[in-house]
Write a structure and sequence with these properties.
- It is a single chain.
- This protein is mainly α and 249 residues long.
- It has helices at 9-18, 41-49, 55-70, 77-86, 91-100, 105-120, 130-149, 158-166, 204-218, and strands at residues 28-32, 35-39, 181-186, 239-244.
- The strands form two sheets. Strands 1-2 form a two-stranded antiparallel sheet. A two-stranded antiparallel ribbon has the order 3-4.
- α3 (55-70) runs antiparallel to α4 and α6 packs antiparallel against α7.
- The protein is elongated, with a radius of gyration of 25 Å.
- The model is unreliable at 1-5, 197-201 and 226-234 (pLDDT under 50).
Length: 249
């Protein structure tokens, strides 16, 4: 399923960067052709993607944008500008993926933004190919995410759903607090105890999500980037269900 919401992640980034009409916008002071020019975000984009673009000026724009983002004092404006400058280079791949695969557009855009922020951390401002490498990293991550998601087939446990729907609350033997909780284990424990060892651990996926979430927060994007949490592949030996005390089973 795809989304065509005009207020997706990419659109929100543009609105956040450019701000309200008349507001103060970030700019780049670029050394180019033995002179220094000051470019607005729109002028910087035109230098990179416009019909009369100059490759030397484009390289200078990427060099200065990446350098300022890496030296960002903490408000995230520099990183936000780099992300915004990279977006036009992502649209073709974005729409190609949306046409071919079942994936949510907002999730795909979020993956691309996180890829740009991740690549920005190790990018070399002096490399003439820096801009292309950042965009390539984001494109590769979008494709990897889409190919992974297409293999995920959500299913409903019909038996469990029917059991829960048709169940009736058993008579109360011992009073339970109104705000209490019950833990139900499937399959039930054997005579010697649980049939398997329970281990509560933090997954690599969660750690990665927290790391990228912190990165997005530092870049000023906490409300714009949402990363889906995905369970790691593992053999299912049972389920644990935490329900309010007295709830239908």
């Amino acid at each position: 399923m795809t989304s065509t919401d005009a207020e997706g992640v990419f659109a929100l980034i543009g609105r956040e960067l450019l701000g309200a009409p008349g507001g103060v916008r970030p700019s780049l002071t670029v050394a180019f052709d033995q002179r220094t020019v000051r470019l607005s975000p729109e002028e910087s984009r035109k230098a990179l993607y416009g019909p009369e673009r100059d490759e030397a000026l484009g390289r200078a724009v990427w060099r200065q944008a990446v350098r300022e983002a890496q030296q960002d004092p903490g408000d995230g404006a520099g990183s936000l500008l780099v992300v915004w400058l990279a977006l036009p280079g992502l649209y073709r791949s974005l729409h190609r993926i949306l046409r071919r695969l079942r994936v949510e557009q907002d999730d795909l855009e979020a993956e691309a933004v996180l890829a740009v922020l991740t690549a920005l951390g190790t990018a070399d401002p002096e490399d003439p190919a820096t801009g292309g490498l950042v965009i390539k990293e984001a494109v590769n991550r979008m494709w990897a995410y889409a190919n992974r998601v297409k293999q995920e087939v959500p299913v409903v446990d019909i038996a469990a759903f029917a059991e829960a729907r048709n169940a009736t609350a058993p008579p109360e033997v011992h009073p339970r607090p109104a705000d209490g909780w019950e833990l139900h284990v499937t399959p039930p424990p054997c005579q010697d105890g649980l049939a398997a060892t329970l281990r509560f651990a933090e997954s690599r996926t969660r750690r990665e999500g927290e790391r990228l979430g912190a990165l997005a927060h530092q870049a000023g994007l906490p409300d714009l980037v949402f990363r889906a949490r995905r369970h790691e592949e593992a053999d299912l030996i049972g389920t644990l269900a935490l329900r309010p005390a007295g709830a239908l089973r």
